[in-house]
Amino acid sequence: DVQLQASGGGLVQAGGSLRLSCAASGFTFDDYAIGWVRQPPGKEREGVSCIRSSDGNTYYAHSVKGRFTISTDDTKKTVYLEMKNLKPEDTAVYYCAVDAPPVEVVIGQYLRPPIFYDYWGQGTLVTVSS
After folding, report:
1. How far is the C-alpha of 10 from the C-alpha of 119, rounded, in Å?
2. What are phi and psi of 90, to 5 degrees?
3. Could you tell me the sign of the dihedral formed by the alpha carbons of 65, 19, 43, 25, in that order?
4. How far is Cα 2 from Cα 77, in angstroms, rounded to an integer?
5. What per-residue string of b and e applies to 103-127 under the rule 16 or more CB within 10 Å gives b?
6. pLDDT digits (tens, 9 = 90+) for 104-123
7. What are the DSSP calls for 68-115, one per residue?
8. What distances in angstroms separate CA 25 from CA 29, 57, 111, 114, one per listed residue?
9. C-beta of residue 34 within 8 angstroms of C-beta of residue 81
10. pLDDT of the residue at 76
11. How far apart are CA 74 and CA 121, in angstroms?
């Protein structure tokens, strides 16, 4: 079974930084996308960033581009989200998710809505105070 274990959330002041981690296991897809989705309080889930295993290409939502960086370790089974210059509007539960083949969450250079992810981990709460 696919398992995704996210960690690293917490309380941080605006302008601060956090790094989220997601340990993925239980799959051996030839090509997949693994990424982060967040759900702000009272709002719908939104895609934040993902990385594609086949080529290492990364994708970001416009709202986080230049502030967040996604990366993986050598095994590509641990994915990180380095978040800098955090803003109160970044407050959300952050989920790690995997899009199994055929990869649909990215098309061209664009990150599509999180509905295309197939597997989800539990969330980790990030709270940014003003």
Report:
1. 23
2. -85, -5
3. positive
4. 11
5. bebbeeeebbebebbbbbbebbebb
6. 999 988 999 999 999 999 99
7. EEEEE-TTS-EEEEEE-S--GGG-EEEEEEEEPSSP-SEETTEEPPGG
8. 11, 21, 23, 20
9. no
10. 76
11. 21
